[in-house]
Amino acid sequence: MKHEAYDHPAFQVVERMPGLDMALLKADDLLHWGAENSLWIFPMGTSCCAIEFMAAAASRLDMDRFGSIVRGSPRQCDVMVIAGTITVKMAPRVLKLWEQMPEPKWAIAMGSCAISGDFYRDIYSVVPGVDTFMPVDVYVPGCPPSPDALIDGIRRLQEKIRAARGGKPFEREVRPETGMILPEIRRLGDSDRDPAITEAQCQAVLNMDKGGAERPPR
Amino acid sequence: MNALALTPPIAPRANPYLDIESYEGQGDLMVLNMGPQHPSTHGVLRLKLWLDGEVVVKAVPYLGYLHRGVEKLLEKLTYVQSTPIVDKNDYVSSMTNELALVMAFEKLEGCEIPRRARYIRTICAEMQRVASHLLWLGTFALDMGGALGGGTTAFMYCLRERERILDLFEELSGARFHYHMMQVGGVRHDLPAGWDAHLKRVAADISARIPEYEHMLSENVIFRARTRGVGRIDKLLAQELGLSGPNIRACGIDHDLRRSQPYAAYDEIEVRPALATEGDVYARYQVRLAEMRESLRIALALIDGVPAGPIMGRKPIETVNAVKPPAGEAYVAIDSPRGELGAWVVSDGSTKPYRCKLRPPSYHALSALPYLLPGVTIPDVVVILGSLDPIMGEADR
Amino acid sequence: MIGPDALLLARERFGLETPEHGPTIPRERLGEFARALFEAGYVYLVYVSAMHHPADKQGETERPARYTVVYRVRDLARGLEFPFRCEVPLGTSVPSLAAVWAGADWQERETFDLVGPVFEGHPDLRRIMLPEDWEGHPLHRDYAINTPHRPWR
Prior knowledge:
Number of domains of chain A: 2
Helix content of chain A: 25-40%
CATH architecture of the largest domain in chain A: 3-Layer(aba) Sandwich
Order of helices and strands of chain A: EEHEHEEHEHEHH
Strand order of the largest sheet of chain B: 1-2-3
Oligomer: heterotrimer
CATH topology of the largest domain in chain A: Rossmann fold
């Protein structure tokens, strides 16, 4: 008899014996289920969206019920949620932390500042969208996106993970841009992106490690 | 004998430019970088700490990781377009940002605000103060307890109450954050029907819960040990640095712009001071709790007497070039949950400001770190930083 | 409320005009004026900022590009406030008031970073908001807001 708790498509055959519930499923399905339902989140929260991120993780819309937990170290995380404006000073740090995350890893660009720079995109010190230097899997639009929208973004990421692991094709998520002027630095993955820019960005991260552009304080 | 009772030590002011080369420590000094990305959710602040064992010898904060060039952007946009920009400075209390800027524009223009609009502004500012302090309390306790420890309890409780206030604001202005509520001459949205009943319910519920937080934290031995006597700010230093708000009121200096330079409807209501004398982290915590109570009391006192009338004191703003103040300068400061938030605006007679400087209280609070951190251990660094309540969006602009 | 004793100080001891937005102190006497204010009780520093005026013509005279550095201090005990300012042409430094008010330290760093005036005698005049190798001062009136900064924007 199929127990209703096992309605998840991962479980194929369920038996109940006294004191024991048994399910029969493919190892792959079990691993897929585990991967998408235990996303450990690395919050790269810089500004206002970080507060909405915290609200999504707090009492009203508990993100923990999706199996996610917020961890402080990139080495332990699967998903980086970039919540907030990324400035020129912060960008090499974000790229370095992204590189430090082990595979498989995904990125959610939360909020319009992370997607395109919002109305700050023409400012001298703001990076117009985080996908100019790192690949983004899910875009969550809004300023700030309401916590429900972030939960929906995580759900879309879960679908994407399920599709990717199952070998099924999925649509690459397109940065929402209606009638916008594209920034001079093209997205990672765009055909007209200059490879020298990627090289320069990696070099900037390495320079930062060597002490970078900061004069020591007195 | 209460081992936690401490007498204030008379210590000389720490030197933020201590010469590390000639410092005689117990061994080598270790440099620890509490980098811009850090789980203590105070935004992107980088602290470079020189440690002698576990004790900090010198601390150098680095800002600018969230510098979004707001002051330059305000020169490029018109007066009408500037409200949603400054919303995002002190993102936890958006109403107060807008209020400071809009009041500076009104001072330049010289327009009268109708009484109803002033009441709405005051009620919104006070409920915003409660929401901001709730978030502060939640993250402060979270920093101390850790994400998987006891700190999460306070975080969950406080954010639950804050959501109630955000619901209230959503009913009023349509947004949970970044309300875009104030405009030159008054407010944009009028109070909807039933809002006052909603506010009374929310205020009653929160007032009933503040004693729970106090009971959970103030009487907790670990909380008291970590906060009493830690991060004491000297009165003269606080004034020289320009600290304001709960940070300076906890030192015993009664500097409250709501009383000394009343704005909005503060001249029609009595604001009782929330003061403490010690100047340490525990005092700042007590001041903020008392301020929450006081703000709820003010909001409840004002909501019944909101006068009828228009909410705009000048002709309605329908185009982006509608506000064109004469040439001049104005500085207006309000008491935001973090302290004195000021806007110095210079106008050259056109529809765009010539220079707009925002005076953020968090910037001044962070400038106290090189003086407060030497001599404390690393756990105290987190506690002191949390107690100053910095918001990087406003410190970096 | 503008402090009457500070106004008296500016008018009598320093012989300056006191318009609505405070007297303009010549840069040579700025340190002396600041110390006099501090001793008179104005120990609370509200802000230090500046604005940039590009070179222009006022009537017949050509005025060079200059900075107006503005200060505002308060005396909390008596509830008095006092703004004052100092005008310098580009290239001339302003004496730093970090030795008088401890808060002037960071305020002057930010003003130097964004607007441009150099504060002489400042203990550590580095950029604070922008990366340290940044060229130019963004709040100059002729600085383009969308200046690129390869490889990030």
